[in-house]
Design brief:
Blueprint: H1 7-17, E1 21-28, E2 31-37, H2 44-48, E3 51-54, E4 59-61, H3 62-65, E5 80-81, E6 84-85, H4 99-114, H5 129-158, H6 161-184, H7 191-220
Antiparallel strand pairs: 1-2, 3-4, 5-6
Helix pairs in contact: 5-6, 5-7, 6-7
Length: 226
């Protein structure tokens, strides 16, 4: 009070002295990044030396009007896991990043961090979406294999061995070409792509059967094979 300052003035003075200053942008092959000057506050001493208000005669620093010490902010939420206190850390991937690769890097970082943790503490993954993605990939692989086997048997019985062989090669080849095309265009295997590929299995099987049956019928009518 001897300085004639209010609490709001102290808070505003500290906040204005610790602002980030934009220093431009950097553009690279991976995108555009904003560059800012780092914050001034890193230690309690930095807070103590911040100017709160300046007069013609002197500069009032934060340490002149308050006691600065390192402490924790009052908890606003409480996290528990299996009834025990826990710390929740949410990791979000960038737009366009591969989910499985992101989770792999997160596990690598956490494995290194576990080595420095006190005894009795451990890391648990509560919402690992990569498990669901891997399950979808497995379902897609199973659906494709089942479709190839069933179509091969049906076509072998209904048409000929050559037709069943062509269809059996066309289905996995089409999927492989589609995935390679997505990779060339810069797309990752996400939820939408997985669901689309699973839905495409039925259409691909139908189209392969129709085209092969049409070719067999035309050749039986006398159309040259080449």
């Amino acid at each position: 009070s001897s300085y004639g300052l209010q609490l709001d003035q102290v808070i505003q003075g500290v906040a204005s002295s610790n602002s980030l200053v934009a220093a431009g942008n950097l553009e690279g092959s991976e995108g555009k990044y904003a560059v800012k000057v780092p914050s001034l506050i890193e230690t309690p001493e930095d807070v103590a030396n911040l100017p709160v208000v300046a007069t013609p005669n002197a500069v009032v620093q934060a340490k002149d009007v308050a006691t600065i010490r390192s402490t924790f902010k009052d908890a606003e939420t409480v996290t528990r896991l299996d009834g025990r206190p826990a710390i929740a850390i949410e990791v979000k991937k960038r737009i366009g990043a591969n989910l499985i690769d992101t989770l792999t890097h997160v596990r690598e970082v956490s494995d290194n961090f576990i080595k420095t943790m006190p005894e009795g503490m451990h890391v648990t993954y509560t919402q690992d979406k990569s498990v669901f993605v891997n399950q979808l990939l497995g379902d897609l692989q199973n659906h494709v294999m089942i479709a190839v086997i069933l179509v091969f048997i049906v076509i072998l019985y209904a048409l000929s061995g050559r037709a069943s062989l062509l269809i059996g090669l066309a289905i996995p080849s089409s999927f492989l070409m589609g995935i390679l095309l997505l990779a060339m265009m810069g797309y990752t295997i996400n939820m939408i792509v997985l669901f689309s590929l699973i839905l495409a299995v039925g259409m691909l099987v139908d189209d392969a059967i129709i085209v092969t049956e049409f070719a067999e019928r035309r050749m039986s009518e006398g159309m040259p094979k080449a």
